[in-house]
Specification:
Elements: E1 11-21, H1 22-32, E2 45-48, E3 51-55, H2 65-75, E4 81-87, H3 94-101, E5 112-115, E6 118-121, H4 131-141, E7 147-151, E8 164-169, E9 174-179, E10 182-187, H5 198-207, E11 213-216, H6 225-230, E12 234-238, H7 242-254, E13 261-264, H8 268-284, E14 292-296, E15 326-335, H9 340-347, H10 350-355, E16 357-365, E17 368-376, H11 379-382
Parallel strand pairs: 6-7, 11-12, 11-14, 12-13, 14-15
Antiparallel strand pairs: 1-3, 1-4, 2-3, 5-6, 7-8, 9-10, 15-17, 16-17
Length: 399
């Protein structure tokens, strides 16, 4: 079925049932719970005069027959009866419908994200003929969903947003989502947002102490920057995408952290060479010496930006000052056949490699993982010459 025919799901079936006196219902349901018929908009308990008829799952009837017989004896109930039911499209879940209408060898459409009122699919090629049917079913079956979109297969963009195809519902892409107690508003068609990173956002925020100075080089709409500003960190958040920048400013106001967050709309290298440089100079000369954290969440190419720190400052500026700790948290993709330490060696100097910690974030694909590397940015590196730094390998930006 490539065009959804809801009438095709109308059918009459027979299911096993038990008639139970009302005074025994509560006790009997406790032991019958594993056997109940569970379908959408079909309550398993029905009134029948003073008694109640309880519908049982026919797929479990043979398996649970001895169990049911024991229940009948214990509660002195009549034997199982068979009851006719009229089923419609409304009674089936989206999983049940997909098992019927999609190719039998691969009928799973479990890989989708929900962002506000939007379902975001990334359909495989063999399901593209069924994409509009899939969109309509998900729109019908999932609560509060108004829009179903499919991601384009290959996207290359400097702004990390992706082209999408509307499969069903309204072309309305502005959403407000909640994550870790914070609200984020944005246009999903114009910015990057991945709900699967909710745990990572929370984990990194926990690792950064209150009052720290934070530079978020690729901030997006603020999933790191907003919670850190709420934590009373001094946050400088940047994104090249003008739409991300506007929503970042909006979210700072929405979450009432504008006083702790300054937003920028710059290229990542320009941000490091100007805002980060000025911030390091200011922090290094401060008698309080707060800890400093630099977040680089652009896994497709963030490692190629770390050479920008080499020679960023002049040692003569700090002859009478101690340099506080500077931590870099950089995300990257690791292919199945790559070694994480070897990848780090391509981009980091030897001193940074001695302090680095690498941890997995999530599996992106069967042969691809997202990783986070954290290391200390040494004064020696900041005062080094460019030629002392390893030459990064060329990498084409893909998101």
């Amino acid at each position: 079925m490539t065009v959804l025919d809801r009438a095709a799901f109308q059918k009459e079936v027979e299911v096993p049932s038990l008639v139970i006196p009302l005074e025994k219902l509560k006790q009997v349901l406790k032991v019958l719970k594993p056997c109940l018929l569970k379908m959408c908009k079909l309550p398993p308990v029905r009134s029948e005069g003073h008694d109640r008829r309880v519908l049982l799952n026919p797929a479990l009837f043979d398996e649970k027959l001895l169990y049911l017989e024991q229940v009948l004896r214990n509660f002195n109930l009549n034997s199982v009866e068979w009851t006719n039911l009229q089923l419609t499209y409304e009674n089936f879940s989206h999983e049940s419908i997909f098992k019927v209408v999609l190719p039998a060898d691969n009928c799973s459409v479990s890989s989708f994200s929900i962002v506000g009122h939007i379902i975001h699919l990334n359909l495989k090629p063999h399901l593209m003929d069924y994409k509009h049917l899939i969109g309509e079913v998900l729109l019908d079956k999932l609560h509060n969903i108004k829009t179903v979109v499919n991601k384009a297969q290959v996207i290359e963009t400097e702004f990390r947003n992706f082209q999408m195809e509307l499969l069903a519902g309204e072309p309305n892409y502005e959403v407000t989502v909640k994550e870790n107690g914070f609200q984020y508003a944005f246009d999903f068609s114009k910015v990057f947002w991945n709900p699967r990173l909710v745990h990572e956002h929370g984990e990194l925020v926990k690792k950064i102490d209150s009052g720290a100075t934070v530079f978020d080089v690729f901030a997006g709409v603020g999933p790191f920057a907003i919670p850190l500003a709420k934590k009373k960190c001094v946050v400088h958040a940047n994104d090249l995408n003008p739409d991300s920048y506007q929503w970042l400013c909006h979210n700072a106001e929405l979450n009432k952290v504008k006083h702790n967050l300054t937003a920028y709309n710059l290229d990542g290298r320009d941000f490091i060479q100007s805002i980060v440089k000025e911030g390091l100079l200011r922090c290094f000369k401060s008698p309080e010496s707060p800890s400093i954290h630099i977040i680089m969440n652009l896994p497709a190419c963030a490692l190629s930006f770390v050479d920008t720190f080499c020679g960023l400052l002049k040692s003569s500026d700090f002859e009478n000052h101690t340099t506080p700790l500077v931590f870099v948290h950089c995300y990257f993709f690791l292919k199945k056949d790559e070694d994480e330490a070897e990848v780090a060696e391509k981009y980091l100097d030897l001193e940074s490699q001695t302090s680095m910690q690498i941890c997995p974030v999530r599996v992106v694909a069967p042969n691809k993982r997202m990783m986070r590397i954290t290391y200390k940015l040494s004064p020696r590196l900041l005062f080094s010459l460019k030629e002392d730094f390893p030459e990064p390998s060329a990498k084409r930006i893909k998101t």
